[in-house]
Amino acid sequence: MEKKIVVLVHLGLPYRKTIKYANMRARDMGAKLTLLGIIPDFVENNRVALATYGLASYKAVAGSVEKESVEFFERVVQFCLDNSITVNTRIERGNLEEVLKRTASDVNTKLIVVPAPTKHDHHVPFLDTIRQFAHNMLEYDFQCPVVTVLAS
Question: For residue 43, how many C-alpha atoms fall within 13 Å in the half-sphere facing its CB?
Fold first, then answer.
């Protein structure tokens, strides 16, 4: 059984200090470091908003978000390579809470590190997700702690 520390990578959220912290913890614990990229799913509210404002087709916007998410994830992986940080990589679709639940229920995951938002436009959705996650966490059998790193 291989211990791992997972860093969630989400489009636009800071990652440098988060990865450095997770890397130190992985060395201390003798665990492997895994970067988990999240490609957000559009929930029904987002689809309705797109249809209401007629900004673009759902398919075009979803494709653009996926492309931007993958490009951002590739920049994060390159940061690790540039800093001689060895990582495993994985990409999943879904919202932050769903991905946290799936990852935290894995018995091999010993710690999940989540970056904290520093831009105002990320605060509300991110903090709401963390609030919901904390509120609902008693319903799930988590195998590891989840920490957030302020990356100011």
Answer: 7
Chain mean position to CA 78: 17
CB 96 within 8 A of CB 6: no
Phi, psi of 57 (to 5 degrees): -70, 150
pLDDT, tens digit, 9 for 90 and up, residues 85-131: 999 999 998 887 788 888 888 889 999 998 877 665 555 556 666 66
Q: 115: which DSSP letter?
A: E
Of 110, 114, 115, 119, the closest CA to residue 142 belongs to 110
User: Could you tell me where the DSSP H helices lie in the chain?
Assistant: 16-29, 44-53, 58-82, 96-104, 120-136
Choose from 7-16, 21-30, 92-101, 137-146 the range with maximum mean pLDDT. 21-30
Based on its alpha-carbon atoms, the radius of gyration of the chain, rounded to whole angstroms, reads 16
State the pTM of this model: 0.77
Higher pLDDT, 53 or 104: 104
Residue 51 Ramachandran class (φ > 0 left, ψ -120 to 50 alpha, else beta):
alpha
Domains of the chain with bracketed CATH? 4-150 (3.40.50.620)
